[in-house]
Amino acid sequence: MAAQAPRVAEPVVPVPRPARPREAVRVRPRARAKLPTRLIVFAICLAILAIGRVTLSFAVVQKNMATSAVLAQSRALTAENADLAARVARDSSTLRVRTIAVDRLGLVPAQNVLYLSLPPRAARPSGDRTR
Asked: What is the C-alpha to C-alpha distance for residues 63 and 84, in angstroms, rounded to an integer?
């Protein structure tokens, strides 16, 4: 086999493109129509934001009214609880209980009261089962 001679790369010659005729710069009619469209979209977004703000304000006012009603109810219940506590204190006084016992039930105050003292539990006899 004989040695082959190295190949030489052929230079690439660019193919010239056909020249296009230059067109005159035209203003697109659509570009002029974008401005009113954008203004309309902006106005719609602004209206939606305003409606949302009014709705949110209305919700806050309703919650404030509900809170005021709950606070008024809480104050009324606190006053009623204070009145009931005073009534319980008045009704459970020893003077009133004694008056009811004597007048309505016909009980008599105790006389010659005798106090008994019992020995401690450990000193009781083992057969005594009373408490």
From this structure: 31
Terminal-residue alpha carbon distance, the chain: 131
Residues, the chain, total? 131
**Mean pLDDT for each 10-residue chunk of the chain (131 residues)?**
67 75 64 80 96 96 95 97 93 88 89 88 62 55
Give me the residue label for tokens 């005021």.
68
Residues near 98 by Cβ (< 8 Å), separated by ≥ 6? 109
Residue whose tokens read 């008056």: 99
| Residue 96 and residue 90 in contact, taking contact as beta carbons nearer than 8 Å | yes
> Cα angle vertex 118, ends 113, 124, to 5°?
155
Tokens of 91: 């009704």
Residue 106 zone, left/alpha/beta (φ > 0; ψ -120 to 50; rest): left
The answer to whether residues 56 and 62 touch, using CB atoms and an 8 Å cutoff, is: no
Which CA distances in Å does 40 have to 25, 35, 50, 51, 72?
29, 9, 15, 16, 48
Q: Which residue in the block uniquely carries the two structure tokens 């005798």?
A: 114
